[in-house]
Amino acid sequence: MCPTGAIIRTEFDTVVIQSDVCNGCRDCIGACPFGVIDINPASGTAQKCTLCYDRLQVGLEPACAKACPTASIQFGPVADLRKRADARVSQLQNAGETRAQLYGADDKMLGGLNSFFLLVDRPEVYGLPPDPRLPTRNLKSSSWLSVIGAVVVSVAGLISFRTRGSRA
Ligand code: SF4
Ligand code: SF4
């Protein structure tokens, strides 16, 4: 639905907005169920986390995952991350944090997200929609989902990025 084709899916199955192609129409802002796209006031074009596309292209992990001192942001094959996240949820629940839950870790949410999070409260507390919906049927479910990672990096969460080939 981007009229200029500025939004692309990369070879890493991530979604990137090409600012040099964007005309600033804002259609994507209203369409994103997670509200992670905004207009860059300097350029007047749409902007969101790129999942460090430049770093991925040279074999590096996203900078925020690399820099996070508590390893709350993790990057890797989604299946591995799900195992780690499940173990962490069990650990937290056994420790009395009964609200510990994964958000977007299975296919129930829009067919499966490229990123998922470990929350210890309701999604709304983290600014996440409890029941995100796509505005049109023409959008692939995962098109908007890999963008949410950067938005909730401040929560105690797990970010996973689906690696190419890890899912059909
Ligand atoms: S604002 Fe969004 S929908 Fe409009 S051209 Fe830019 S990327 Fe495409
Ligand atoms: S939020 Fe993380 S993945 Fe996204 S652009 Fe910033 S450092 Fe890279």
Give keywords:
alpha+beta; 11% strand; 19% helix; 6 strands; 2 domains; Alpha-Beta Plaits; binds iron/sulfur cluster; two-stranded antiparallel sheet; 168 residues
Number of helices: 4
What is the CATH level 1 assignment of the largest domain? Answer: Alpha Beta
Could you estimate the helical fraction of the residues in percent? 10-25%
Number of domains: 2
The first-to-last residue Cα distance is 24 Å
User: For the CA atoms, what is the radius of gyration?
Assistant: 16 Å
Shape: globular
Q: Mean pLDDT score, rounded?
A: 84
Task: Return the CATH topology of the largest domain.
Answer: Alpha-Beta Plaits
**Molecules bound to protein:** iron/sulfur cluster
Helix/strand order, N-terminal first: EEHEEHHHEE
Find the structural class using helix and strand composition: alpha+beta
Low-confidence stretches: 137-168
Strand order of the largest sheet: 1-2
The appropriate CATH architecture of the largest domain is 2-Layer Sandwich
Number of strands: 6
Major sheet = 2 strands, antiparallel
